[in-house]
Design brief:
- The chain is about 20% helix and about 30% strand.
- By secondary structure, it is an alpha+beta fold.
- The strands form 3 sheets. It has a 7-stranded mixed sheet, sandwiched between helices. A 5-stranded antiparallel sheet has the order 13-12-11-10-14.
- Helix 2 crosses helix 4.
- The longest helix is centred in the C-terminal third of the chain and has 21 residues.
- The radius of gyration is 18 Å and the shape is globular.
- It holds the Pfam family BPL_LplA_LipB.
- Its EC number is 6.3.4.15.
- This is biotin--[biotin carboxyl-carrier protein] ligase.
- It comes from Streptomyces marokkonensis.
């Protein structure tokens, strides 16, 4: 940690239910400033989007949450934080682990194992009081094939990472997150001015594919993912000739890029 940097406190615990839940609770008590990082060697009740469970053996990955307070940014633009974190993680892992990580909209981290695209991590952002956001990251680092929770999962080790030492990987990801968060905040949350919108699109494996968006209310849309708009929504071009922005939902890749 640098004296003038974003990260002012890094706490490491051996085991907890969820680093996100813990940090949200601490922020609600009003005793946590921006820049706190909570790292767990093991999470027993980790959550993804829609309260899905995330499981991994102890000390097999990076499991951490950070507290951010982007007070200079309009709340309407805070939806970019999960996408920003995805860009930062992909950039940090490329440098520190020598492995390419693609982004599946809105919050999955993909690696290539053999010739197959697999999920190796995810991101979850949650509000923490009126002016805070806790962003959690889970990344499978050293998991072997027999340790994967599901067959379609992956890990950095299985993707041929040059390094699986979790300490430099965490440092690399946090440096990258500090950099991208600083750019975005300086730009007032404008994703185009910060270079974030363009960089996210360049690393997004969802764009250019035919996908099915499974939406709330048992509704779904099939179309080609053609863009990520200024609000961070995925834009689908449907067979009916219209472009539909999707702000929330599960995305299923139907055709390889």
């Amino acid at each position: 940690m640098r004296a003038d940097g974003l990260w002012r406190q890094v706490d490491v615990v051996q085991s907890t239910g969820s680093t996100n839940s813990d940090l949200v609770a601490r922020a609600a008590e009003g005793r946590q400033a921006e820049g706190v990082v909570l790292v767990a060697e093991e999470q027993t009740a980790a959550r993804g989007r829609l309260d899905r469970q995330w499981t991994a053996p102890p000390r097999s990955g990076l499991f951490f949450s950070v507290l951010l307070r982007p007070v200079e940014v309009p709340v309407a633009r805070w939806g970019w934080l999960p996408l920003l974190t995805g860009v930062a993680v992909a950039t940090g892992l490329s440098r520190a682990a020598g492995v390419d990580t693609a982004l599946k909209w809105p919050n999955d981290l993909l690696v290539t194992v053999g010739d197959e695209e697999r999920k190796a991590g995810g991101i979850l952002a949650e509000r923490a009081g009126d002016d805070g956001v806790v962003v959690g990251v889970g990344i499978n680092v050293t998991l072997r094939a027999d340790e994967l929770p599901v067959a379609r999962a992956g890990s950095l080790a299985l993707a041929g990472a040059l390094s699986t030492d979790r300490d430099p990987l965490l440092r690399g990801v946090l440096r990258s997150l500090e950099d991208w968060y600083g750019r975005w905040r300086t730009a007032g949350g404008d994703p185009a001015a910060a270079g974030l919108q363009e960089t996210y699109a360049a690393g997004c494996a969802t764009l250019g594919r035919v996908v099915r968006a499974e939406l709330p209310g048992d509704r779904s849309i099939v179309g080609e993912a053609v863009a990520v708009d200024g609000d961070g929504r995925l834009v689908l071009a449907t067979a009916a000739g219209v472009q539909e922005p999707v702000g929330a939902g599960d995305i299923v890749h139907l055709r390889p890029a």
